[in-house]
Amino acid sequence: MVTNRKIINPAAGAIVMAFGIFLHTSMNLLPFPSIMRPVFISLFLTGAAGILIALGVQFSSREFRRGFLNNPVNFFSMGTWVAGISVSAKVILLYYPEFASAVTVVIVLNTFLYGYYICHCLRHFYNLWRTPEAHAPHGVILLAAVATQSLVIVWNVLVQPDIPPLGVLFGLLMYTTGAVVIIRHYFWNSKGTLTDDWSNTNCIFHGALSISGFAMVVSGSFAEETIAMFWWGTFTVLLFIESIELVRAGRRIRKYGWREGVFTYHISQWSRNFTFGMFFAFTSHVHTGMLLNVWGWIVILLLVAEVIIFTKQKTEGAPGGAHP
């Protein structure tokens, strides 16, 4: 019997994305014995499978699907499902390349899911542009670009020779479309405040650029000079967005205090873990040295902090959701 009880937040795929990019990149900075890495990977794959299966079961509910598909903003969170599967596949290919055939089957299915997703994204982009006053778009709609580039990356790993750059360019088109819609909202339609109406998901402004840059690297179809310039552009956007985040955090602390202002769990916070990890992945192909090491530890510390906040919220039974 189908019920209307929500099984899992549709954005839960961001958890898979956050841990997946950590295992793929900055985990190597930790002084763990090599024997421990298969344990972490097994735990990740088990957890990822549990989350993604739960999302699929929930989506099978006609009642849930009707509301979800018709929500022009929240629907974009399905992009975490596509990207979560892609990142999980990339982790498997990195540590267990002998399973490439099985991964290929999964990615073919994921590509069909992406096609279904992106068709609805195009419809919702149109609705958001046509009736801007009816909705409040934020960084979640940039997941259309993230999902696109995640598939570009994993297909370029699976297929030789390199795939033409059309996928990367389409992802950048999705990014541009989403960015214009969001910027128009904040400059012309939003009547809210930075303290309460700026979304955690706006960090995807730079995260989507980072994964696009990484896709450019993996595709092998872009000149090194182009990639270097793109990295500097991504870094500039990151500094701008995170500067806004620091100002917002200060205002929230003054208004709500430390705990409610910045240390209350919300599922959208996982998007920051993914975006910071993605910037590390992109940077690792452009720069070496102190910047890379420092950023790697930032990724690790942010992930640990998020796990602590999540665990505390679950053990205390407090409702998550103080942050939009």
UniProtKB/TrEMBL annotation:
Name the domain of life: Bacteria
Q: Which residues cross the membrane?
A: 7-27, 39-61, 73-93, 99-119, 140-158, 164-183, 203-223, 229-249, 294-311
Sorted alphabetically, the keyword list is: Membrane, Transmembrane, Transmembrane helix
Give the protein name, as stated in the record. Answer: Voltage-dependent anion channel
